[in-house]
Amino acid sequence: MKWFRKKRDEGSQPESKGSGGQKVDDILKDPFADDLRMRIESASLPNHILEVARDECERLIKTDKSSPEFALGHNYIEFILSLPWNVTTKDDLDLTRAKDLLDARHYGLNPVKERILEFLAVKSLHSRQQAKILLADDEVIARENLSIIFEQEGFAVRSVANGLEAITAMENDPADILVTDLKMEGMDGLQLLQEVRRRWPDTGVIMLTGYATVKTAVTAMLKGADQYLGKPVNLTKLRDYVMELLNRNQRIQSLRGPVLCFTGPPGTGKTSIGRAIAEAMGRKFFRLSLAGLRDEAELRGHRRTYVGAMAGRILQGIQKSGVRNPVIMLDEMDKVIQDFQGDATAVLLEMLDPEQNASFVDNYLGLPFDLSGVLFIATANIVERLPAPLRDRMEEIEFSSYTLSEKQQISTRFLIPSQLSQHGLNPKDFNLLPEAVRSLVVDYTREAGLRGLEKQIASLCRKLARKTLAGGENSDIVTVEAGDIPDIMGPPPHFTTTAKSSPKVGLATGLVWTENGGEILFVEAARMQGNKQLILTGSLGEVLRESAQTALSFLRSNAEKFSLAPDFFESSDIHVHIPAGAVTKEGPSAGITITIAILSMLTGRAVRQDVAFSGEISLLGEILPVGGVREKIMAAGRAGIKTVVLPEKCDYAVRSIEPEVLENIEVRLVSRLEEVVDLALL
Ligand code: ADP
């Protein structure tokens, strides 16, 4: 389908009235004015924008060139002219190509890729549906002429002679657009309109009539017609209306689907998959980092009356990308700050809402800009942090931590060759043996994603580059073995979160889930003389404080069962501390760990340090289920834990984890705290 641009009437150009500081002759001769007018007329602006641009232009021409208003007005017009009002790229929705491209750029991530291909398939089907037009007119010639024209444009056209026939045709196969004459035998256009509105509300209706009067037009519009045209039909206008209605329908259909939201720890490929989707679809891509954003104006711009006002980041991005249908990645949406100083969420909601985003208004531009062609993809580390209305709009696709073997594969196939090239080295000249890569992954990084690993590989490449130069021109292939790694990279960094080696009294190892993936953390418990206080430190959230209180109450109420003195709390204080200030400690999963730490401290039985726990306890000692099981088990593996104790209800989650993750870990599922005691305490 083609876009038909209206030929603009030469005569409709506004005439300069020549008031203000300059004379009429000057204005007419002004080459700047001529040039600007010409650029505005030839910029294919939509009608309502064209009008504003013309007005602004005429006002500017009358403004003194040395005044600040001139610069402001000029910038504004230039901004309007620089926006891609009608520029789009055509979507490439070839699924085989998209799959090849996703595979070529990313190793693994199969569930994610599958979901993306499904998404593209739906888009592709939508775009392939041939738009259907039904023509109702009692004049044969008029019907035939319109049929021929619309068929040439690639529409599926049917034509009928009156309202009754039109209803039958709609019943057989509802059309996307009905173009109907007003006066017809049998059932006329208005009756037909009412019937269509009632039964097929999504169909667009354009009324045509030879007796175009304001009154009939108003009646038709009131009864629900979308557009109204007098005869003889202005074909350009009719086509414009048809395209407008189709765009509206298509937009509603294709955007009824949710916005994709990639969630998961940093460095797991969310941004780069977004980029690959844009590449696969043949769309432009830009990334909008939302971390730390609190000011609505940053997204939506400042009004022109402010000094130094600028458009918001959305329109700036659109302007830079040069098209109105790019892929926009709204990165780290969960880090948007909501506080009393402002809330950018409202703008995000508006942008993502298909009902509203077709007329997104930037404060600086002050005119609606159509964002409905944009494909938005959001990313978030912790999706629970998103405000509920935003989360409702999203379909979450989870990116989980990479296993050791995935990291090795990705390093060998992607990260190492790309980093070598980026450092001016030829990948063919270097051979990093698998054990060397493994050492980089295991000894030099401890993370869910690949960011740290990518940095370590970059560091290795810098060192190799230096060595290569120092060694002079040598054509031999350089082989890097595991043993060479410490020589090149220096000693491995010391990670504080490895499991302790020998059993300890009053110290238990817990597993938590954070935005960086799983982590292990330690819970310490101590008792001293005092008066029945439970002291909690380690910047714990409210939920954790309550867990600790529950743990203590459970032990006090079951003192006999655990061979504790019934009055152990009478003349003492108990202090529970969770070090590692950097880890957010909020979730409800540390109940077991806290109970075990306190119990160990009270009984003097040491806790095995190769066992880690995750699970909440109830006041009656039942173990309640927790989330993030895969991430937690992986964190345990990385930290050298041998046994992971989890709630029985996590059984299903454990069974769906791939064998590689469970390789060196024994998972024990428990339903009551008593079962944990024997596993954990010596
Ligand atoms: P995120 O957006 O999740 O923080 P990035 O997309 O920035 O992560 O990924 C970090 C780096 O890891 C990038 O260089 C990316 O190309 C690479 N990467 C991530 N996942 C994969 C994968 N499955 N295959 C190949 N490279 C990957």
TrEMBL record:
Keyword terms, alphabetized: ATP-binding, Hydrolase, Nucleotide-binding, Phosphoprotein, Protease, Serine protease
Domain Response regulatory: 132-246
Record-level GO BP terms: phosphorelay signal transduction system; protein catabolic process; proteolysis
Domain of life: Bacteria
GO MF, one annotated term: ATP hydrolysis activity
Residues that, per the record, bind ATP: 264-271
Gene3D superfamilies hit by this protein: 1.10.8.60, 1.20.5.5270, 3.30.230.10, 3.40.50.2300, P-loop containing nucleotide triphosphate hydrolases
Modified residues (4-aspartylphosphate): 181
Entry annotated with the keyword Amino-acid biosynthesis: no
Domain Lon proteolytic: 502-682
Protein family: Belongs to the peptidase S16 family.
Protein name: endopeptidase La
UniProt source species: Maridesulfovibrio ferrireducens
